C-alpha cells in the first residue's frame, strides 16, 4: 500500500509551495497593547461622565451577514464599515449588558496585567447569578474581543475544549507537558491553549476533519489511523468550538499538508465544513487564525448516495429547516464561487433527501474505513 497516497502527496507538495509564497499568520498582540486598548475604553467612559453625558459603548454587529464579506484566500472577514450597535448605560434595554461588559473588562484587565489565565467556566461560576448563563458570558467575551480588535486568546480567557484529536502527532503544551496522540484506540482532548503548543512533530500526510463524534469513534475503533497511517483525525463534535478550529489552523500552518472534511450529506454538515474552511460571521474578525481556506470536501458527497447505491431506507427526507438552510447556503458567495460544491448542493436539493455518514455501514459494516475513505484518498475523490 506504499503508493496509496500518491495523489495526496502531489496535493501536499502543491499546498506547501503555495503557503511558502503566501504566509498570512498573524502575530499575537502584546499584553501591554491589550491593556492600553482597555484603558482607552475606560477613558472614553470617564470623559463622557465628566461632560455630564450618559456613557455609551459602540459594538460591531458580529452576527449580521451585512457585516462580513468573502475573501477567497482568507474566508469570511469583517467589513470596514460594519453596522454598529450602541449600548447606553441609561437605557433599560442595554444597561445590563453595558454593566456586564465592564465587569468582564475588569476581570480581563487583571488577568492580562498579572499574566494569568482563567477559563470561561471559571469566570461564570465565580458569579453565575450576575451573568445568568454561560452563553451570555461567551457572547460578551466575543463582543469585547471584537471591540478591542484583538484575538480572543490575547484576553487570557480560555474555553474548555470539546474536540478530540488522534493520529501521528506529538507536541509540547505551554507548561512543557508532552502530548502524544499516536494511540490507535483512544483520543486526546484538543488543548485549551492551542496558541501555547510548540515543538509539533508529525509525519502525517493529511488531516481529516470529522463532523460527528460517533463517526470519529468509529474510525478509532477500526484503527483508521493505523490502517492509513500516517494521518491525523480531529473532531469538533458537531459545530466546532474555537479551540478545535484553532488546532486545525495551527496544524495546517505548521505541517503544510492537505485538510479534508468528512461530514454528513446534509445542509448542516455542509455548513459545519464551511465554518472550518471559511470561518463564521460572529468571529469573522479572527478569520486569519481560525479559517483554513484549503479544506477539501472528501465526503459524504450527495453524488456518493447514488454512486455507492446507499440503501433508500437509510436516507432521510428533507425537513422545512433543511430546505431553509440549503436555500441560505446557495446565496453565499463562498458556495457560488465553487461550481463543484454548487452542483452537489443542487443535486441534494433536487433529491430532497439527506444521508448521514453512518448510512455507509448499511452497505457493509466496515465500508467507511476499508473501502470508502481509502478509495477516496487513493484516487482523489474530493472536491
From TrEMBL:
<comment type="similarity">
    <text>Belongs to the TOP6A family.</text>
</comment>
<keyword id="KW-0799">Topoisomerase</keyword>
<dbReference type="Pfam" id="PF21180">
    <property type="entry name" value="TOP6A-Spo11_Toprim"/>
</dbReference>
<dbReference type="GO" id="GO:0000228">
    <property type="term" value="C:nuclear chromosome"/>
</dbReference>
<dbReference type="InterPro" id="IPR002815">
    <property type="entry name" value="Spo11/TopoVI_A"/>
</dbReference>
<dbReference type="GO" id="GO:0000706">
    <property type="term" value="P:meiotic DNA double-strand break processing"/>
</dbReference>
<feature type="domain" description="Topoisomerase 6 subunit A/Spo11 TOPRIM">
    <location>
        <begin position="206"/>
        <end position="377"/>
    </location>
</feature>
<feature type="domain" description="Spo11/DNA topoisomerase VI subunit A N-terminal">
    <location>
        <begin position="97"/>
        <end position="157"/>
    </location>
</feature>
<dbReference type="GO" id="GO:0003677">
    <property type="term" value="F:DNA binding"/>
</dbReference>
<dbReference type="GO" id="GO:0005524">
    <property type="term" value="F:ATP binding"/>
</dbReference>
<dbReference type="InterPro" id="IPR013048">
    <property type="entry name" value="Meiotic_Spo11"/>
</dbReference>
<dbReference type="GO" id="GO:0007131">
    <property type="term" value="P:reciprocal meiotic recombination"/>
</dbReference>
<dbReference type="InterPro" id="IPR036078">
    <property type="entry name" value="Spo11/TopoVI_A_sf"/>
</dbReference>
<dbReference type="InterPro" id="IPR013049">
    <property type="entry name" value="Spo11/TopoVI_A_N"/>
</dbReference>
<keyword id="KW-0547">Nucleotide-binding</keyword>
<protein>
    <recommendedName>
        <fullName>DNA topoisomerase (ATP-hydrolyzing)</fullName>
        <ecNumber>5.6.2.2</ecNumber>
    </recommendedName>
</protein>
<keyword id="KW-0539">Nucleus</keyword>
<feature type="active site" description="O-(5'-phospho-DNA)-tyrosine intermediate">
    <location>
        <position position="125"/>
    </location>
</feature>
<dbReference type="InterPro" id="IPR036388">
    <property type="entry name" value="WH-like_DNA-bd_sf"/>
</dbReference>
<dbReference type="GO" id="GO:0042138">
    <property type="term" value="P:meiotic DNA double-strand break formation"/>
</dbReference>
<keyword id="KW-0413">Isomerase</keyword>
<keyword id="KW-0460">Magnesium</keyword>
<dbReference type="GO" id="GO:0046872">
    <property type="term" value="F:metal ion binding"/>
</dbReference>
<keyword id="KW-0238">DNA-binding</keyword>
<keyword id="KW-0479">Metal-binding</keyword>
<dbReference type="Pfam" id="PF04406">
    <property type="entry name" value="TP6A_N"/>
</dbReference>
<dbReference type="GO" id="GO:0003918">
    <property type="term" value="F:DNA topoisomerase type II (double strand cut, ATP-hydrolyzing) activity"/>
</dbReference>
<dbReference type="InterPro" id="IPR034136">
    <property type="entry name" value="TOPRIM_Topo6A/Spo11"/>
</dbReference>
Amino acid at each position: 500500500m506504499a503508493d496509496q497516497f500518491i495523489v495526496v502527496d502531489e496535493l501536499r507538495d502543491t499546498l506547501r509551495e503555495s503557503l511558502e509564497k503566501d504566509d498570512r499568520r498573524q502575530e499575537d498582540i502584546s499584553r501591554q497593547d491589550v491593556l492600553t486598548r482597555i484603558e482607552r475604553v475606560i477613558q472614553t467612559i470617564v470623559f463622557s461622565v465628566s461632560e455630564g453625558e450618559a456613557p455609551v459603548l459602540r459594538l460591531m454587529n458580529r452576527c449580521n451577514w451585512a457585516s462580513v464579506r468573502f475573501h477567497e484566500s482568507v474566508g469570511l472577514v469583517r467589513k470596514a464599515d460594519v453596522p454598529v450597535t450602541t449600548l447606553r448605560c441609561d437605557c433599560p434595554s442595554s444597561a445590563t449588558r453595558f454593566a456586564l461588559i465592564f465587569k468582564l473588562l475588569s476581570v480581563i484587565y487583571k488577568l492580562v496585567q498579572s499574566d494569568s489565565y482563567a477559563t470561561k467556566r471559571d469566570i461564570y461560576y465565580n458569579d453565575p447569578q450576575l451573568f445568568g448563563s454561560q452563553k451570555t458570558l461567551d457572547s460578551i467575551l466575543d463582543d469585547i474581543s471584537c471591540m478591542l480588535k484583538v484575538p480572543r486568546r490575547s484576553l487570557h480567557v480560555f474555553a474548555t475544549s470539546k474536540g478530540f484529536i488522534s493520529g501521528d502527532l506529538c507536541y509540547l503544551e505551554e507548561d512543557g507537558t508532552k502530548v502524544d496522540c499516536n494511540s490507535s484506540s483512544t483520543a486526546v482532548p484538543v488543548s485549551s491553549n492551542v496558541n501555547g503548543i510548540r515543538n509539533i512533530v508529525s509525519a502525517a500526510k493529511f488531516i481529516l476533519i470529522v463532523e460527528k463524534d460517533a463517526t470519529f469513534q468509529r474510525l478509532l475503533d477500526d484503527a483508521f489511523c493505523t490502517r492509513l497511517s500516517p494521518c491525523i483525525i480531529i473532531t469538533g463534535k458537531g459545530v466546532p468550538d474555537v479551540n478545535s478550529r484553532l488546532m486545525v489552523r495551527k496544524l495546517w500552518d505548521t505541517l503544510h499538508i492537505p485538510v479534508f472534511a468528512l461530514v454528513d450529506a446534509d445542509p448542516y454538515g455542509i455548513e459545519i465544513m464551511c465554518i472550518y474552511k471559511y470561518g463564521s460571521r460572529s468571529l469573522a474578525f479572527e478569520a486569519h487564525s481560525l479559517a483554513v481556506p484549503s479544506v477539501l470536501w472528501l465526503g459524504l458527497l450527495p453524488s456518493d448516495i447514488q454512486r455507492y447505491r446507499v440503501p433508500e431506507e437509510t436516507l432521510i427526507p428533507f425537513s422545512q429547516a433543511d430546505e431553509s438552510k440549503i436555500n441560505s447556503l446557495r446565496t453565499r458567495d463562498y458556495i457560488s464561487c465553487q461550481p463543484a460544491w454548487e452542483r452537489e448542493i443542487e443535486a441534494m436539493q433536487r433529491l430532497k433527501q439527506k444521508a448521514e455518514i453512518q448510512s455507509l455501514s448499511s452497505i457493509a459494516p466496515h465500508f467507511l474505513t476499508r473501502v470508502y475513505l481509502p478509495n477516496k484518498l487513493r484516487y482523489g475523490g474530493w472536491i
